[in-house]
Design brief:
alpha/beta; 195 residues
Length: 195
């Protein structure tokens, strides 16, 4: 995404130093994921989605979605992730793009929704257990009057019955490498369960 500069994983990126701190596996926050790419593109193309609003980038990883929201005129952006190293990556990436983001370390999915106007949830449906927890949290957000947009390339655990397609964008997903021909990532509105 040309508008946003990110520190990416690579031999000379410096992000490897973060990954070597403590007991840690793959630096998932150092790569672009399809849902986040779609959400960031959507927000930049439809600035009215976030303009003047307080936004939560849930499962922020690198912070690409939050950065897009800040660039598009969000009043405030909170970027939440469970990995403390993601907090460092978010700060680095926000600085590289000249935007202000509040990093929030922690697992928000079992608690009450924070005081925000909009939740942008990218790539939270890659695991069945995480998908169930995320859907319950997003349901509580709707109950508190918070709008929710979900970005995802169409993973198996996506709660399709709760989603209304808003837009699709061509692009890669995490782990695709150069095999992106014909791939599409989507943005959905997360909606109340039908009665």
């Amino acid at each position: 995404m040309a508008e946003i500069r990110l520190h990416r994983a690579g031999p000379k990126s410096g992000l490897g130093r973060l990954a070597r701190i403590g007991d840690f596996g793959s630096p998932y926050w150092a790569y672009e994921w399809g849902g986040g790419l779609a959400l960031a593109r959507h927000v930049l193309d439809h600035r009215e989605t976030v303009a003047g609003r307080k936004v939560l980038d849930l499962g922020a990883g690198s912070g690409i979605v939050g950065i897009a929201a800040a660039m598009a005129g969000a009043r405030e952006v909170v970027a939440a992730d469970i990995d403390p190293r993601a907090m460092a990556a978010i700060r680095l990436n926000a600085t590289a793009n000249g935007v202000s983001i509040v990093p929030l370390h922690g697992d928000l999915l079992d608690g009450a929704p924070p005081a925000v106007d909009l939740v942008l949830a990218g790539d939270l449906f890659y695991d069945p257990h995480l998908a169930r927890r995320a859907a319950r949290f997003l349901e509580r957000c709707l109950g508190d009057g918070i709008a929710v947009l979900v970005g995802d390339p169409g993973r198996a655990d996506l709660p399709r019955e709760r989603l209304r397609l808003i837009a699709e964008y061509p692009g890669p997903d995490f782990g695709d490498g150069d095999q992106v021909l014909g791939k599409r990532n989507a943005v959905f509105a997360f909606e109340p369960a039908s009665s």
